[in-house]
Design brief:
The C terminus is likely disordered. Helices cover about 40% and strands about 15% of the residues. The chain is of the alpha/beta class and about 200 residues long. The protein has a single domain, classed as Rossmann fold, CATH 3.40.50.720. About 40% of the residues are buried.
Amino acid sequence: MSMFDLSGRVAVITGGNGGIGLGMAQALASSGCNVSIWGRNAEKNKTAAATMAKGPGEVDTSVCDVTDPASVAEAMKATLHRFGRVDGCFANAGIGGGGRKPFIERTEVEWRTMYATNLDGVFHVFQAAARHMTERAQAGDPFGRLVATSSLASLFGATSTMPAPRLRSTRSAARLPWNSRAMASPPMRFCRAGSGAT
């Protein structure tokens, strides 16, 4: 028995082909939600979708690079073509800023790549989803949710990858909760759950 009935709803999950994103996609699909997984790796997307094939919700995938607005626009177009609507957008795609290297050894290219995915990617995805949700609301169907995933490492540092004192080198993720609030306006609602942030 499902805790929620999300039948008829549609959710986009970026980075939904593994880790936390896959867990979110599976939970939504098991509650009847139709799910569109956006990720850069087509094979990983396909494998993730297969884990939900027998659930009540339909699953679709799109190859999408959230750092590229054109790629996001194409993925949104494909999702709307398949499902006709998007009710929830889960901005979950994210990368580490240089792997396991200490902060002082990271390159500027690694730094910029991290920001492009973890911060700019959320902007691109939320903007595309919010445009659709706003158009739908103006047509009499006011519903939409934008949900961002952020790392606790951005708040407390990552001791395994840098010497003391701990350095918050992933500030792009730390800024995300505050920037997301600025994007939350009717008909969308900003959701925050279970983090140590206030």
